[in-house]
Write a structure and sequence with these properties.
This protein is α+β, with helices and mostly antiparallel strands. 50% of the residues lie in helices and 22% in strands. It is built from seven helices and six strands; from the N terminus they run ααββαβαββαβαα. The chain has helices at 2-18, 29-35, 53-58, 72-81, 102-115, 130-138, 144-161; strands at residues 39-43, 46-51, 63-69, 87-90, 94-99, 120-126.
Length: 162
């Protein structure tokens, strides 16, 4: 962590002092948000979106509510039927909802589950992050194995070009 912090500070200072542009590739959204004035999200070699970190987060137009339950399909169908969320994504063991005014909506979400005797294990709320933006534009989380497989594929292509 100390080395990472030192490197981030060094890059930030270098950009300001030398008035240069640094192109950074990273899978770490925290790093991109801290160091980059503009971010491009690339999926399978195609640029999906480019903008400032704040504009990218604001583009999601809502808060993210994560609901953990064993009855994902039933709960998602109930929420979808009531048009409470602008986006609903089912994952392993949880559902991510993009909603307006999450603080006001969470009691309603709990009522919906309770009325169907759906056990909610936990609920969390957060403002959109760059990771949420990435998920929105690519439809999946960053996975180390995907990145590694893609790197191996590129390396094979490059070695054939020589």
């Amino acid at each position: 962590p100390q080395t990472r912090e030192h490197l981030w500070t060094y890059i930030g200072d270098l950009v300001k002092k030398e008035e240069i542009t640094v192109i950074l590739t990273t899978h770490y959204m925290e790093e991109a948000e801290r160091l980059c004035s503009r971010i491009g999200i690339i999926d399978f070699g195609r640029i999906k979106v480019v903008d400032t970190p704040d504009n990218l987060k604001a583009s999601l137009t809502g808060d993210v509510v994560t609901v953990y339950t064993d009855r994902l399909n039933e709960f998602a169908d109930r929420v979808r039927g009531l048009n409470l969320a602008s986006d609903i994504e089912k994952r392993d063991g949880y559902i991510r909802l993009t909603v307006k005014d999450a603080d006001k909506l969470v009691p309603r979400i709990i009522e919906i589950a309770a009325s169907a005797t759906i056990e909610i294990k936990s609920v969390s709320i957060h403002k959109p992050t760059l990771n949420d933006v990435f998920l929105h534009y690519t439809g999946r989380e960053i996975r180390a194995e995907d990145a590694e497989n893609e790197l191996v594929s590129h390396m094979r292509t490059w070695s054939k070009m020589r």
